[in-house]
Design a protein that fits this description.
Number of strands: 15
Shape: globular
Strand content: 15-25%
CATH topology: Glutaredoxin
Radius of gyration: 17 Å
Structural class: alpha+beta
Strand order of the largest sheet: 4-13-12-7-8-9
Largest sheet: 6 strands, mixed
Distance between the termini: 38 Å
CATH superfamily: Glutaredoxin
Order of helices and strands: EHEEHHEEEEHEHEHEEEEEEH
CATH architecture: 3-Layer(aba) Sandwich
Helix content: 25-40%
Number of helices: 7
Low-confidence stretches: 4-14, 16-54
Number of domains: 1
């Protein structure tokens, strides 16, 4: 099992560079010393839509869709590299994916909460990409230290029909190797035991064809009265379209 949602996403602090501007929910601004770039991370997102759009949100992404995805531009810099093993037992490195855009997520192969929702969004995005699909790779890194086998990520991939996406890679490895990736991407993971819910950040990174971080989004879900996770069909479809629009921008 596993769980995230917006609340868990907020557990992850934003990756900071040599110069920093944090825009807090009440518009307090702190400028870190030293030359550098501005990192924009906004809560609530709606309050700074104009600022974010001015910071490089693709014109093809509407303000309402940007709000839905809580989409933020990030400093253009090389994404931390890693090499792990995918659901087919093949080694995959981020550097080896250069030339294609990468949509990177972090998932629990035993998750019954937000991970299946993001899986459907990836399937929808792949279909929405059309002719551009061959130039986009969908990658997830395992966050469950107790279920590290290739068989675990392979089972999840099959159950969620992610095998329909030719460029899908659910990556796993040893606990130290995975923990290093979590650290590099500021992903918070709380896994108290093999049978307990894994609470982890659900940050979606968009990496361009030159291997540079460009955008981050915060996947979301809602819950029924009984606690089951879901996302309304319209929002689910919009997320797929948004992922495709951003990824397409990064391969042109």
């Amino acid at each position: 099992m596993g769980g995230t949602g917006n609340a868990a996403s907020r557990l992850s602090s934003w990756r900071r560079g040599p110069g920093l501007v944090i825009i807090a929910a009440l518009a307090a601004v702190v400028v870190a010393a030293g030359a550098g770039y501005a990192v924009i991370r906004v809560r609530p997102h709606q309050a700074a839509a104009a600022v974010l759009r001015a910071s490089g949100i693709p014109a093809s992404v509407s303000t309402s869709l940007s709000d839905l995805m809580q989409l933020s531009p990030v400093p253009v810099r090389g994404a931390p590299d890693f090499t792990l093993t995918d659901q087919d037992g093949h080694p995959v490195s981020l550097a080896g994916l250069r030339g294609r855009a990468v949509v990177l997520e972090f998932m629990d192969p035993h998750c019954t909460d937000i991970c299946p929702i993001v899986s459907q969004e990836f399937i929808d995005a792949y279909r929405d990409l059309g002719a551009s699909a061959a130039r986009v790779v969908f990658v997830a890194v395992n966050v469950n230290r107790y279920h590290l086998r290739v068989a675990d990520v392979a089972a999840f991939s099959g159950e969620q029909r992610l095998t329909q996406v030719p460029s899908w890679h659910f990556l796993t490895g040893s606990y130290p190797s995975l923990a290093a990736v979590w650290r590099d991407y500021e992903i918070t993971v709380d896994a108290p035991g093999p049978d307990a819910d894994v609470v982890h950040s659900s940050q979606m990174y968009f990496i361009d064809s030159r291997g540079r971080e460009r955008f981050v989004a915060d996947p979301m879900d809602d819950h029924t009265a009984s606690g089951s996770s879901y996302l309304p069909a319209g929002q689910l479809a919009s997320w797929g379209q948004g992922i495709a629009l951003i990824a397409r921008q990064l391969v042109t």
